[in-house]
Amino acid sequence: MASNVTRLYQAVLRDRTAPISIRLRRTFSEWIVGKGFPPAEAARAKIEAEVGGARLTMERRGDCGRYTLDEPCGEGRLRTRVTYTESVPGVTGWVVVTVDRHGEGKPAVANAPGFLQAYLRTARITDGGVHVEDGPVVLDEEDVHRFVPVMTEPRRRVPIVVVSVDAQDPGEGRARADYLARAVAGASLVVRLADLRAQDRFNRAMGKELDVFGGGIRTYLAPFDLDGERYPYRHLPMGVAMIRDQGTTALDRIVDGVIGETSRRRLPDDVQQALRVVYRVLAGRAELSEIASAVVPPPAETDPAREELRRRMMAMTRPLTPPVVGSVPEQPQAEKPATAEESSSVEAEVEAESIPVAPLVDTAGLAQTVAETVIKELRGELETALRLATSSGTSDSDSDRLLREIRTVGAHLSGVRDVVSGLRDVVAERRGDELLEAAEDESDRLAGEIESLRDEHRLLQEEYAEAVTGARKLAERVRWLEHTLAEAGRPVYGVTGEGAVFEPANLTEVLIEARESLRHIVIGDTDSAATRLDLHHSAQCRMWAAKAWDALRALDDFAKARSCGEFSGGFYDWCANGSPGRFTIPAGMVSMRESRSVVNRSKFSAPRTFAVSPEVNPGGQVLMEAHVKLRPVGYPAPRMYFHDDSGGVTGKIWVGYLGDHLPNTRTN
User: Fold this and answer.
1) Could you tell me the CA-to-CA distances from 523 to 110, 239, 386, 610, 657 in Å, in that order?
2) Which residues contact 394 (CB under 8 A, 6 or more apart)?
3) What CATH number labels 127-263?
4) Crossing angle of helices 396-487/538-563, nearest 10°?
5) What is the tens place of the pLDDT at every residue in 203-225?
6) Going by C-beta distance under 8 Å and a sequence separation of 6 or more, which residues neighbour residue 163?
7) In the chain, where are the structural domains located?
């Protein structure tokens, strides 16, 4: 069975400065020496080594090469691969760096390989649109207006992480920017605003919904249209409160989001096309010249000898009418053999005339045309030879003449055979090339359509999130109207003012707000799982956040009512039989039980066992089966697991998990 492979990092770096190989080999060698390997010898075309279970292979051929480092990682292996090719006519040199995890187990930390910062310092290296720096770019007030075009550059592929000014501790901003730059080298550009003046000018350029301030950090994805940005929430911000509270854990979440964004992207078309040839070159199955031809095919070269034969044949067949499929070709009329003067005149006319390349006919049509040409052009010679062969009393001179005629016919037929064979090979070769090109074109077209559909799907999700937010605002308005009616003497349930409606942008904000404002909810250690969804699915997390917040408010309202004896049923009953004034969610989102196959197998029950207070369970943890489905099916399908102790000692709901779907019998 093939091992499970997870892409942890990917960077596509354009390098115009030759030679790439010397700079890349030197920086990569310095990195592997720190891992215990000997320095890479420049004179060797292939290096293989093994140290402490880690395996290294470095190979090059001409202007391209590949380095592969396999290292043990828990129950699996971590594979770092570096593939490069130098600049050739029509192709800018590039380096593709990937890190993959092979095998099962906990996800490995997704950071840039340690040699990348040193390599980025060796030349001006770009992602195809913007300069990818080896460290943070510091923007002062005067630099902001020059940097905005960098953010809006349409060819930009990498995200840009902007670190704002922390007025309480300016040194922290520098430390955060340095940490991020090391972790995302090659896959992102990290920018630090120098001071408050630079921050104010940057925010004026960005606008209200795209600003960053107060020590916060914001990731601006590509593409970025400053004037027409419809969904600012996809450029995820992180507030300084979370950064101060969680330190490097919060910064690692930003790193995960940035690298997750770049590692999922499809390689540029020219790199993808050239990469296939690079692999064949390294395997000895292709030549270096094919790298350029894979990206920019040159005009087809013509064999002079074959072209001369083709030209003569086309000159001979040009007056003929191409055969029509299904029709019976006309019988050629007998012709008087051409005289020597006429033959030489025809040959001179053929030699002097330049005949354009005609499209190749199909094999059946070509055979029919050649047959007609043979009969028409050689009929006289054939009749003469036959007359001489059948006449009696043939003299020696006649025999010599007969032999010459037969030889002439044989030579002509041999020439015709060579022409037909050559044209047939050309037809077969071009047909094969055309089929291959058609298949590759169709593959590229389908890949483009898939990418377009993904973009469209992402936009539809964001539009749906906007609609959900609008519906929530209307629901709050209805509740305020109910409160107003209650003050007027009408019996309505619930009391809610017209205050500002909390609109969470992501699941992390939901957890923070729930801890601060919901008195009958206890949130466990689930921030990491929630943030992973925020970063990896930025287009959907706003919609999930709204649903999660509604579910938490419904749980809080339920726990409040049950703990004081106003309600005696379970949470499903609360939602299914809700009355006006209750916070509820659709009952279809609620599941109070897991399947027996999940509960009875520790492989699946263990991930659903979460910490609670000893007052709830003396063991300090409990299996939580009840959960809310933020998305019923599909991938991802977020879940929120909880334990109901609203009728117990604490009178609260304990939320143990908010994140992606946990493993079950279908996912494993």
Assistant:
1) 27, 20, 106, 11, 8
2) 388, 402
3) 3.40.30
4) 30
5) 999 988 899 988 999 999 998 88
6) 136, 173, 176, 177, 180, 190, 191, 192, 193, 217
7) 5-122, 127-263, 299-323+333-499, 502-659
